[in-house]
Design goal:
- The chain has a domain of 228 residues: Rossmann fold (3-Layer(aba) Sandwich).
- It has 340 residues and is α/β, with parallel strands linked by helices.
- The chain is built from ten helices and 13 strands.
Length: 340
């Protein structure tokens, strides 16, 4: 399949961005990716890839050296709860992500790029609407009065308004989506920036049957998690519609974090015990409200969470085994060299 669409993906070395490049290439588009890094777990399928820092306006101008049919702005300084909610990374999160958005919008405006997508986050919703884990309010209309629970959320809210202002003032066809916990294979699974599904897949994969895994908090906090393929479907439907958004792109299958951990153990065929420990938590409840996306795009995500966990666990388990294989080989070799 071929088409004449020329597309720029900012953040193409990241989890969502690299999957988006693959999806766009499968449609036959010509794709340029740009990021600080190449994808970690597989080669990029982009036709052209600029390895550069989008905080630098020169890199942005080099990346947007022509008029693209679509630009997807996914680049950001981000991570899971262990990165976002400690407070230790607030300045970097706000400064780096806001600078990227300012630069890329200016570069696109200079090149008369019209259609541009911005990936916001459910973290921009008010904390006071997410205190009840059983009944959080994350409808798009609930965003104001604003009261995000993190600087990450405040930056996302600012950047939403920045993109929408460029749309109003400069005639750009802006599309804005609020992602709810996107997960899947080839995402970060260790190191502190991983999100809950990947973290539990790693912990369960590394645990013995009957073993213990640690969890921050009491585990009764709730979330919803969306598999990467459905995220991409929602993004492309939004971008190619005549509607700006903002709109939630997420699953409405709400689960407790305890349930998420046990579901992962079920997929692995293991019995595990959870040890609850202190740690950064975020809001008590968050779930995607999908009424608006159903109404405006006649679509919403429907895949069961366990299907995505099954695919993700299999991939992360393979990564854990790869990591352990050299260690096991070295241990066996050392043991064989010891005189009996």
């Amino acid at each position: 399949m071929t088409n004449s669409r020329r597309v720029l993906v900012c953040g193409a070395g990241g989890f969502i961005g690299s999957h988006l490049v693959n999806r766009l290439k499968s449609e036959g588009a010509w794709v340029r990716g740009v990021d600080l890094k190449y994808p970690e777990f597989s080669s990029t399928s982009a036709d052209d890839f600029i390895k550069g820092d989008l905080r630098d306006p020169i890199i942005c101008r080099e990346s947007v050296d022509q008029r693209f049919d679509e630009v997807y702005q996914l680049a950001a300084d981000m991570g899971g709860a262990g990165f976002v909610f400690t407070g230790e990374n607030d300045a970097d999160i706000m400064h780096n992500s806001a600078l990227i958005n300012l630069n890329i919008l200016e570069a696109c405006h200079r090149r008369n790029v019209k259609r541009i997508f911005y990936s916001s986050s459910a973290c921009m919703y008010p904390e006071h609407n997410q205190m009840d884990p059983e009944n959080p309010n994350c409808s798009e209309a609930s965003a104001y009065p604003a009261d995000p629970d993190s600087e990450y959320g405040w930056e996302k809210l600012f950047s939403e308004r920045l993109f929408l202002a460029f749309g109003r003032n400069y005639g750009m066809e802006v599309r804005v989506a609020r992602f709810h916990n996107i997960f899947g294979p080839e995402g970060t699974w260790e190191g502190g920036r991983e999100k809950a599904p990947a973290a539990f897949c790693r912990k369960v994969a590394m645990a013995d049957d009957g073993g213990v895994i640690e969890m921050w908090g009491d585990g009764e906090q709730t979330r919803s998690f969306l598999y990467i393929d459905e995220c991409l479907e929602g993004v492309l439907r939004l971008v190619r519609s005549d509607w700006t958004g903002p709109v939630n792109i997420g699953s409405d299958e709400i689960v407790s974090i305890n349930r998420l951990a046990m579901m992962t153990a079920q997929v692995a065929g293991k019995v595990i015990t959870i040890e609850h420990i202190p740690g950064p938590l975020g809001v008590r409840g968050r779930n995607s409200d999908n009424k608006l996306i159903q109404e405006r795009l006649n679509w919403r995500p429907v895949a069961p969470l366990i299907d995505g966990i099954t695919k993700t666990y299999g991939w992360i388990e393979s990564q854990v085994l790869k990591q352990r294989t050299p260690e096991l080989a070295a241990t066996a070799e050392a043991g064989a060299s010891v005189p009996g």
